[in-house]
Amino acid sequence: MNKMKNIVGATLLALPLSLVFAEGKIVTVVLSEEPDVIDPCEASRSNIGRVVKQNIAETLIEIDPTDGSITPRLATEWEQVDELTWNFTLREGVMFHDGAEFNAETAVTAINRALNPTQDCEIRLKFFGNINVMPKAIDATTLEIKTDTPQPILPTLMGTMVIASPNTQAEKGTMNPVGTGPYQFVKWDAGQEIVLERFDGYWGDQPEAEGARFIWRTESAVRSAMVKTGEADIAPNIALQDATDENTDFSYFNSETSRLRIDMTQAPLDDLRIRKAMNYAIDRDALIGSLFSEDVVPMTQIVVPSINGHNTDLTPWPYDPAKAKELIAAAKADGVPVDNEIVVLGRIGMYPNATEVAEAMAAMLAEVGLNVKLSMIEVAEWIDIFTKPYAEDRGPVLQASQHDNNNGDAVFSVFFKYACEGPQSTMCDEEVDKGITAASAAVGDERREIWQQVFKRLHEEIVPDVQMFHMVGFSRVNPRINFTPSISTNSEVQIGQVTFK
Amino acid sequence: MRQFLARRIFHSLISLVGLLVLVFFLARLTGNPGDLYLPLDSSIETRQAFTEKHGYDDPAYIQFGRYVRDLLSGDMGESVRKKRPALEIVLEAIPVTLMLAASAMFLALVGAVIVGARAAYRPGGVFDRVASISSLVSASAPDFWIAITAIIVFSVHLQWLPTSGLGGPIYWIMPVCVLLIRPFGLLVQVVRSSMLTVLSAAYIKTARAKGVKEKSIVFVHALRNAMIPVITVAGDQAAAMANGAVIVETIFGWPGIGKLMIDSIVQRDFAVVQAAILVTAFVILSINIVVDLTYAVLDPRIRKRS
């Protein structure tokens, strides 16, 4: 009997030793979901990007998340030859993990693969859907890219294009991503983990971490607990209520901006006074620190400050219910049907407390005398209503939405949301459209200034949104490493930047 | 017996075909997968191209014909999201769920029989009262809350167990315990009440009068007859678990069929939904057949009737 007790005791003691702790110079990242695929051409999906982008496979150009500027990566220089042509000078001495050489030829193969219409690669669908791109190798280190329409910010656009090995199968997705990055793919145990190891032939400085492990847990509480117990090093995306430890938890703009999109074609929302009144009716200070994190910032435009074109001169709408009532009364006196029922359409689970936020917004709008009804719907129905073609009998709707742009330039937002032809726009303003066309064709300071003018007009004269907040994200980082999450943590986790204490 | 089995299998096949048709058409009613798969900013042309490429623009009956044709040649289609054969994805997930469910069910059943029988032996006694109250609590405990609390207590504070993940025996402790709590509580209640009825039956009194040992009365004479309702409930619970222990799989990061099914329904990944339902339906129908056979083994009357 005693012998039995000893065996049981020894087993119990030994069990904890078999736990997998994040140790050695291997960085363990715990994602919110398992990536569906790990193909480089899908790297714009956030959980795929966190594994692949700049770890396994790199881009020609890197976008600096802090100010949207662009820096060299696989390309060292670039210049615009004519309106439709750009030349990129490629870095020499770069090898893919499978031994293939990186040069203009292999870059052409990689770009053509990502843009191949037989595959549903998200990079093509999201960024190159309406552009015809014709890459060509001029010589070993010169890559020419021609487009069918002028692309003054093609280098920024190329910041999204991840370069895979020329040996990657062209017509089908790959489960074995090969690139030029500081880490090479080792294995993917479906459902369990993805393992990377440091690539000794990397062209840049050798990073400190010897490898990386990507695992996934759906529950934010579990992800944050894993960093706490030492089972993981980085949890890139945890909920507000789990970000409780100021020593390990970081908050940062996550590039999302939340708003209620006003359907400007429907009465009474087609009246500027009503749209202004709705913005005066929202007590944003009351929402900050209660339903939203203390770190969110009231928005004045749909892009965050780090995006090229953001206008810092604009001021958020103040809370002024008296003014709101005054504007509504004036509109009513002019015959505007202010008593029409306005639907506040929220999306379940869009962000933490989404339902409570929609309830609060609806209550504030009702407070100033509008006839508001709240409706919460699922994502599929929400998308259907949010994108064109719109239903004819839709009535006045304020649709809660959240927009993400961390791609460096306002062009990725403004056309879609506010142009007459924009797939999610409910407005049509000649001057805004002119601005979008002019900004899209301009570069440098001129481009920034035109965008800023567009945002000023939208904010002060059109008012197409009930403005809410630039949102924040939270990440937990194990104190044994140095890593500062930022706006780019939404789309990548560069293991090469991690150092150990 | 053989005829009984053949009939049960035939009935199961009819259910399976019915389910297949229902799932196929119900899934199509949820809408176009492209709406969820494609980026929000995609143009109308991109959306049309995607729909045509995957054949979602064909009438549902034509899509169904294609599905049946492929199914008969063993092809369950490819996941739009994962870009892999749906059956391969499902077959990776199902063993995880089955192992988890089998361990939890086995422990729950054995524990419930011991505790329930002991409680029924002296109704109203201390053991019975403690067992009744605690089984009631565990039968109604929300597993989501238990799982998170267990992680906070045993992983974060005590650091005895890993928070989650699939690995050696130590990784099984929390998920299995959380999963068995509910069926254990339920089964204790069923065993107890069933045993109470049987123990007051005339043949038990006869056995006692004959001087049969108490242990033998409880575990041989009474238990076998008390097992029919227990097997019914246990079969039901096992089928529910084979359908996916969604909450436990989600929280502990176990890549099982429950989570796969929910994810693919939400994402409208039709091929995976269909394959997952077909495979789990097969497992559940098999469990039902095993339950029916167990009845027949336990009760000769059922055997004869069939």
Q: Which descriptors would you attach to this protein?
A:
heterodimer, A: 501 residues, alpha+beta, D-Maltodextrin-Binding Protein, domain 2, Dipeptide-binding Protein, domain 3, 23% strand, globular, B: 306 residues, mainly alpha, 2 domains, 14 helices, flat
Q: CATH class of the largest domain in chain B, anyone?
A: Mainly Alpha
Give the CA-CA distance, first to last residue of chain B. Answer: 7 Å
Low-confidence stretches of chain B: none
Q: What is the residue-averaged pLDDT of chain A?
A: 90
Assign the CATH architecture of the largest domain in chain A. 3-Layer(aba) Sandwich
Spell out the CATH superfamily of the largest domain in chain A.
Answer: Periplasmic binding protein-like II
Largest sheet report of chain A: 7 strands, mixed
Would you mind describing this structure in some detail?
The complex is a heterodimer of chains A (501) and B (306). Chain A has 501 residues and is α+β, with helices and mostly antiparallel strands. In chain A, the strands form five sheets. In chain A, strands 11, 12, 13, 14, 15, 16 and 17 form a seven-stranded mixed beta sheet that branches. In chain A, helix 7 (272-281) packs antiparallel against helix 9 (321-333), helix 12 runs antiparallel to helix 13 (430-441) and helix 13 (430-441) packs antiparallel against helix 14. In chain A, a hairpin with a 2-residue loop joins strand 4 and strand 5 (85-90). Chain A has helices at residues 2-14, 46-52, 104-114, 122-127, 154-158, 220-229, 272-281, 284-287, 321-333, 354-367, 379-386, 411-418, 430-441, 444-462; strands spanning 26-31, 61-63, 70-72, 75-82, 85-90, 133-139, 142-147, 183-189, 193-198, 211-216, 234-238, 249-262, 297-298, 342-347, 372-377, 397-404, 465-477, 481-482, 499-500. Helix content of chain A is 28%, strand content 23%. Chain A has 14 helices and 19 strands. Chain A folds into two domains: 22-246 and 474-500, D-Maltodextrin-Binding Protein, domain 2, CATH 3.40.190.10; 254-471, Dipeptide-binding Protein, Domain 3 (Dipeptide-binding Protein, domain 3), CATH 3.10.105. Chain B is mostly helical. Chain B folds into two domains: 15-72, no CATH class; 89-305, MetI-like fold. Chain B has helices at residues 2-29, 33-37, 44-53, 60-72, 86-121, 126-139, 143-157, 170-199, 202-210, 214-242, 246-252, 257-266, 270-298, 300-305. In chain B, helix 1 (2-29) runs antiparallel to helix 13 (270-298). Chains A and B meet through helix 4, helix 6 and helix 11 of A and helix 2, helix 3, helix 5, helix 7 and helix 11 of B.
